[in-house]
Specification:
With about 650 residues, this protein is an alpha+beta fold. The protein contains 14 helices and 25 strands. The strands form five sheets. It has a nine-stranded mixed sheet, sandwiched between helices. A six-stranded antiparallel β-barrel has the order 8-9-12-11-10-13. A five-stranded mixed sheet has the order 19-25-24-21-22. Helix 2 crosses helix 3 and helix 11 crosses helix 12. The longest helix has 24 residues.
Length: about 650
């Protein structure tokens, strides 16, 4: 191995396995390290001289591959693409802990690089002498690690697919501004979601001055306007794992926030004072976890942070002697008496007298017993919600222009340390420079609430400025996927609103293979504009580029119609492929809640453009949403479940009695 830390690799398992597809399984690691890997090798008949390597947002287990459902399984896809599949534990959980003293480049790229190099040697031993091509991909924090690998290694991998990526200043700012909006807009979120849904009217929103300011602030920072439909389940997400690091890195911030001019907490008229909770109470009892409550973490980008600090859970909740009042998302329990005094317990929420623990973190501190005094306090979390105002970066980050005056100077007091680059480099290993060493296809989700979409444009500009526009055009593509959220999962929480981007990842990896190995240019970068933090793509397929098909749903010729019970509604669905052929169309009908849908498969002949038209009627008054989910097969085999890029559109039908 090139890296002295990983100079002594070993294999401890080499056997044939049947699931999820027949393969040869090799497990090993590197002596005197905590780095382990799993390599899933196809038969010689199916192997075409390459490997796909997936990297999780946080270091996790090297045994995740077989746990994913077959239809989305990374091993199955890799083997169907002529590739072996490689995964590692990222150097072990401690390697990503900034307090461990371990070099951050271990988890960022060195552990994965060592496994990639050793896997090439294994492949030569098994398949004979050859040069195996390698492709690394990962999303969210794994996107950072993919970028760090692309910029800091040479000859280890040939191509990269970072997806749902952040910028160097994403953390904690994309989370803080969202929390600020959730607090102030919490009584108006249903109205906002409705206004920006199909057939809605944004001009109808009647917000107070404070509400309008918060809404404009989060919108200009890049929160996708059409993503508010998920407000009911939009919680702390990864911020629960990141927020303590903000407080640790800037320990005086909370105190100064509540005391110094220029901070929201020092404004006596701000609503934040009404939402501040500081409840002195005592522990009554511990509520034990039920077996079904245990958290399983598969390595997806929406949940990998839960595996970063996971311990065996012992307690689900702590019953307090008193019931708090107010907005208590992000509250903490500070222990002030007993053997555990001085420790802080992070909470996922409060339900009456129950303080609900973050289940993925495990139990309560040792020494905490009933009768101990605690303070339920949300002061720090409230303070961090406007941290982004005090972290104004360089002028290239235009979403912060709202916090600059006419001369470009910050409108608010600035902290002495810009945390974003420090926190992002924990995953990239070094400063993000744009100096990529291989071919890169970035896949970004346009409804991403955790990694605002403009950040892919920022990285594209960074690459172009670093290596030049011509070189960037020869090495980089950016594909935006509309109606997709952050998570790399198949089933959708809101199936009438969103689609998975897994098919786009499949397509990116396969087009990357063709680009690297055969010189075949991939699909072009999606056409887009960034306007006030919002990424806007053309509606027409011939103008959009990228790989995602385009679909429209019209009811009586528009995106909204008002009818009587039993009155026919003319439904027209039109789908057009940007790449490949339309192979699937599903009609979905949902009520106002958006979660319960009925599906109807519409038979279609595979073609570049498909249109379906029919009459529908409704037997009960109410508001209904008719959606159409489509898929284009981009890789040639029309029957294959892989590389099917999806999209969805919807219209509103209001039925009167």
């Amino acid at each position: 191995m090139d890296d002295e830390v990983f100079r002594d690799p070993f294999i401890d398992v080499d056997e044939d396995r049947a699931l999820p597809v027949p393969h040869r399984y090799v497990h090993g690691g590197f002596r005197d390290t905590d780095t382990y890997f799993s390599l899933y090798l196809p038969s010689a008949e199916n192997y075409e001289g390459r490997f796909f390597q997936h990297v999780t947002p946080f270091p996790q287990s090297e045994h995740l591959g077989p746990t994913i459902p077959v239809e989305y399984n990374k091993i199955v896809f890799a083997h169907a693409s002529g590739a072996a599949f490689l995964e590692t534990n990222g150097g072990g959980a401690a390697s990503a802990d900034p307090t461990s003293g371990i070099d951050r480049t271990i988890s960022a790229f060195r552990a994965n690089a060592a496994a990639a190099q050793f896997s090439r040697a294994i492949a030569r031993e098994i398949y004979g002498e050859h040069r195996a091509f390698g492709y690394l991909y990962g999303g969210s924090g794994g996107g950072y690690r993919s970028i760090g690998s692309a910029e800091n290694t040479v000859g280890v991998w040939d191509g990269f697919v970072p997806h749902v990526i952040g910028s160097s200043v994403a953390i904690p700012n994309v989370f803080s501004v969202r929390m600020h909006a959730l607090r102030i807009l919490r009584h108006r979120l249903a109205d906002i979601a409705d206004a920006f849904d199909a057939g809605g009217d944004p001009a109808s929103l009647d917000l107070t001055e404070e509400e309008r300011a918060a809404f404009d602030e989060v919108t200009r920072m890049g929160f996708p306007l059409r993503s508010w439909f998920g407000w009911k389940t939009m919680d702390l997400h990864g911020f629960s794992a990141l927020y303590p690091g903000v407080i640790a890195a800037d320990p005086t911030y909370t105190t100064e926030f509540w005391q110094l001019d220029g901070y929201l907490g020092a404004d006596p008229e701000a609503s934040i004072h009404r939402d501040r909770v500081r409840l002195n109470t005592t522990v009554v009892e511990f509520i034990a976890e039920e077996p079904a409550d245990a958290v399983e973490v598969s390595g997806g980008v929406d949940e990998s942070f839960k595996g970063a600090e996971r311990q065996p859970a012992r307690t689900r909740a702590i019953r307090l002697a008193d019931r708090p009042q107010g907005w208590i998302m992000g509250a903490e329990l500070r222990i002030v008496s007993g053997d555990a005094a001085g420790q802080v317990v992070r909470l996922s929420g409060v339900d009456g007298e129950l303080a609900i623990l973050e289940g993925w973190q495990g139990g309560v501190p040792d020494g905490l017993v009933p009768g101990d005094d605690v303070i339920l306090d949300n002061s720090s979390f409230l303070a961090v919600q406007t941290y982004h105002r005090h972290q104004v970066p360089g002028p290239e980050f235009t979403v912060w222009d709202q916090f600059r005056d006419a001369r470009g100077e910050p409108l608010f007091p600035q902290r002495s340390l810009l945390l974003g680059p420090l926190m992002s480099s924990g995953a990239t290993g070094t400063e993000i420079t744009g100096d990529i060493t291989g071919k890169v296809i970035v896949v970004e989700a346009l409804l991403d609430r955790e990694a605002f979409p403009w950040q892919a444009d920022w990285y594209r500009d960074l690459v172009r400025s670093r290596i030049g526009e011509e070189a960037a055009d020869n090495q980089l593509r950016v594909w935006f996927i509309d109606n997709a959220l952050h998570g790399d999962v198949g089933p959708q929480e809101f199936p009438g609103h969103t689609v998975s981007y897994i098919g786009a990842l499949d397509t990116a990896l396969r087009q990357l293979v063709a680009w690297v190995e055969r010189g075949i240019e991939p699909s072009p970068t999606t056409s887009y504009q960034v306007v006030d933090g919002q990424v806007i793509v053309p509606e027409a397929a011939e103008e959009r580029g990228g790989v995602q098909p385009v679909v429209t749903v019209m009811v009586d010729g528009g995106v909204r119609t008002d009818v009587r019970v039993g009155q026919p509604v003319r439904l027209k669905i039109t789908a057009e492929a940007v790449e490949g052929l339309i192979v699937e169309m599903v009609e979905l009908l949902a009520g106002e809640d958006g979660t319960s849908v009925t599906e109807r498969i519409l038979p279609v002949e595979s073609a570049p453009r498909v249109a379906v038209e029919r009459d529908i009627t409704f037997d009960e008054p109410g508001t209904y949403f008719v959606s159409a989910r489509i898929a284009a097969q981009t890789a040639g085999d029309l029957s294959s479940p892989h590389a099917r890029v999806q999209n969805i559109a919807r219209s509103r039908v209001v039925v009167h009695g």
